[in-house]
Design a protein that fits this description.
single chain; mainly alpha; about 0% strand; about 140 residues
Length: about 140
Amino acid sequence: MQILQPARNKSLQAIPQDISKLVSVSDDVQGILKKSCYDCHSNNTEYPWYAYVQPIHWFLDSHIRSGKEELNFNEFVGYTFRRQQNKLRAIENSIKDGTMPLSSYTLIHRNAILDQREKSVLLKWVQNSRDSLNRKNLTGL
């Protein structure tokens, strides 16, 4: 079982479709997203040591694939305007109701838990991003 290792979620390529190419992402926001979101919602996962043990890796891989299907920050530019707006709204809702990051993830990754300041920063960023996208859509940029 240890011999069969699924491919890792690691991309060494430039990311032309990243959300930061479309909306402003401050260093503070980028740090929060990387710490609490990117393991499951980007093309680059930071794997813990136990990810190299089967069947744990298969379980993690399934979560990562599901997370990326739902939202991938590295593919955000390729989404339609409507989907971009829906994803930003979903981010806002999941922060407000505390459903993200998943409790099964934060059980082991305690540093991924969002504190009140981080939640406020992300909520403000989401609103600014939605406004920015609306302006771009109205002006046809």
